[in-house]
Amino acid sequence: MKIALIGYGKMGRMIEGIALSRGHEIVSVIDIDNQQDFESEAFASADVAIEFTTPWTAYDNYMKAWKAGVKVVSGSTGWMKDHGDEVRRACSEGGKTLFWASNFSVGVAIFSAVNEYLAKIMNAFPQYDVNMVETHHVHKLDAPSGTAITLAEQIVDNLDRKKKWGLHETAKDVLRIDDIRRGEVAGIHSVTYDSPEDMITITHDAHGRTGFALGAVLAAEYTANHEGLLTTSDLFRFQQ
After folding, report:
1. Is residue 174's pLDDT more than 70?
2. How many Å apart are CA 220 and CA 2, to the nearest integer?
3. Closest by CA position to 204, among listed 105, 102, 109, 111
């Protein structure tokens, strides 16, 4: 498979190494200083572009890749509020393909499935209040993390007593998310259900970014043969 990389930071380089080790070819690498390469023949030859950039550039990168006829796999977060509807329309009505996930880790996919199932169970036990804490490295630009938002939306969708999520919120009907930034932490997400009698906590603690990079390459392999708006629930199917 021919892969283009959009964004060549730590994640981009890690994805490159894993893609090459799995027998794929990197045909184009685009970073901040060579944006003109979106219009190159090399970029257009890619089966899939893997994009890890910033909340402010991701949407424009999708547009440029789609203009070149290239499918996109993206792990950029923070753009959904402003451009989510446009992207959904492009994929459902415009024939474009985007595999988007807030987190590509296989472990996070499993954790997400457990989180959703636990919320369904806890809907019948109102004595348990729920909150979430996410911890990341000091370089992370958005808060809460995209993964935390995905997990929070699962809980809100399945727990009648929570109407929405909020960062540092204290209202009883709001799922509180606290964010911590320290050191070079790859990512820790904890969901806690607390009652007067006991407490239940589930946690995913990433040891590094390798799992995210591998997941992104697996997503690219899947995307090469699929179309539309795709996510990890398409790639990893867990029965409940």
Report:
1. yes
2. 10
3. 111
Residue 140 designated active-site: yes
Contact, 48 vs 5, CB < 8 A? no
CA distances from 37 to 6, 47, 64, 203 (A): 10, 16, 10, 41
Determine which one of 136, 162, 189, 204 is catalytic: 136
Element (H, E) at 122: helix 106-122
Burial class for 115, CB neighbours closer than 10 Å (0-12, 13-18, 19+): buried
Within 10 A of 108 (CB to CB), how many other CB atoms are there?
Answer: 25
Selected catalytic residue, list 2, 83, 120, 140 = 140
Average pLDDT over residues 220-231: 96
For 10, the enclosing helix (H) or strand (E) is helix 10-21
Q: Count CA within 13 A, CB hemisphere, residue 198.
A: 3
Q: Is 163 a catalytic residue?
A: no
Handedness of CA 193, 199, 200, 203 (dihedral sign): positive
Global pTM value: 0.79
At 178, phi and psi to the nearest 5? -110, 140
